[in-house]
UniProtKB/TrEMBL annotation, chains A, B:
Organism expressing this protein natively: Chondromyces apiculatus DSM 436
Upper classification of the organism: Bacteria, Pseudomonadati, Myxococcota, Polyangia, Polyangiales
PANTHER family in the cross-refs: NICOTINAMIDE-NUCLEOTIDE AMIDOHYDROLASE PNCC, NMN AMIDOHYDROLASE-LIKE PROTEIN YFAY
Database matches in SUPFAM superfamilies: Molybdenum cofactor biosynthesis proteins (SSF53218)
Alphabetical list of Gene3D superfamilies matching this protein: MoaB/Mog-like domain
Taxonomy, superkingdom: Bacteria
Name used for this protein in its record: Molybdopterin binding motif protein
Amino acid sequence: MKTAAALVIGNELLSGKIADQNLVVLARTLRAAGVLLRRANTILDELDVIAAEVRVLASTHDWLFTSGGVGPTHDDVTIEGVARAFDVPVVTSPILADLLRSHYGERLTEGHLLMARIPEGARLVSGESLVWPVVVMQNVWVLPGVPEIFQAKQPFIRAELTGGTPFVSFAVLTTLDEGQLKPMLDRVVDEHRDVAIGSYPRWSDPEYRTRLTFDGILEDQVRAARDAFAQSLPAGTIVRLE
Amino acid sequence: MKTAAALVIGNELLSGKIADQNLVVLARTLRAAGVLLRRANTILDELDVIAAEVRVLASTHDWLFTSGGVGPTHDDVTIEGVARAFDVPVVTSPILADLLRSHYGERLTEGHLLMARIPEGARLVSGESLVWPVVVMQNVWVLPGVPEIFQAKQPFIRAELTGGTPFVSFAVLTTLDEGQLKPMLDRVVDEHRDVAIGSYPRWSDPEYRTRLTFDGILEDQVRAARDAFAQSLPAGTIVRLE
């Protein structure tokens, strides 16, 4: 199975100004593509840290997706960080420069043109519905932090990451708490090693006390684990199967 | 200035089931305490990865805060990971076991009692309003992933992290885009090196196009940077100062 990492870049996320909205979006794209997202590191707008993280994460995962730091201002250092990680210079893409010229026309400034910078050797991924391409340097996708734009790029990731088997996920919602259901859960975990099983307590939810999730690649296997667990619960303690 | 890292643990965050709600809460607590949160690593429920991350992050930051993986089920391996990072065994805390006994009474199971496990040598931080203490192993705070409980623990972090100067944050909202305001911004960035300045474009917001933020420890310094930038903007392009 292919693996991926995310590198989420931005002081605003670590200073409590905003909560990240992009990781869950990327995670769902990768689940549908059958790619295992193994970690997401959130860091500050620091060139040397970005470069070091990209170097490590890109070399230890099949794909790396960065989020944030791609505008024209002083705190946008992701492109330079990715270039440094691959030991290449930052160059101006003629294609992106043309796009900027036709978008801004007479209002174009030198500042705007900085958005045409790419690591040397990067490719541009675009499609009919995408005005602004995605910059991809080897196995590193450089995505913008603005949630609406980050979201808009997802179909292009999905279109390139073919060949994987999508994950499937089932669930059991129960009125038992984790301490009560643990013996039954442990048995199913032991007997269904190929299924990733998670247990999530709810806090003051009137409907159910714990959600058990069953995830994997082979639908029959995942469903069998879910059903085995459900059948092991005492009568009347299951709220719902999903 | 003291530094901190966060370790956010849970398959559910990397499989797209839910978006994390805890990082922004912790970030705000640390800002108010004058502690610089330098990174947040989100990882899977994997014992060896947790142990390795705790070892590195706890030794390179003044504080480490973990979120998630502290219940009694098979996927709750944070306590064991922290213990392994410090090369100590997991032991049962008599204080926590007593709390569980009095809470559950006759309903107490062996599963429930697993929530009394702590790394040997960990201390318990509690207070009048806190029924269940926080486990703190040296400089590592072990916090639960359930957002309501994570939130409830924040005052106890704040009470222990004394001595820092809270960060202050000001902002300018403008109708200029980043390409237009860059020359003025670069000048202020150059002349106010002790102030962290951020630039955040809005996407299809009718009110303003860019938010510039000014963060630091010394209020006068931060305000001066904000005001210098505001004064450098053309008339009629400022929407609001914050």
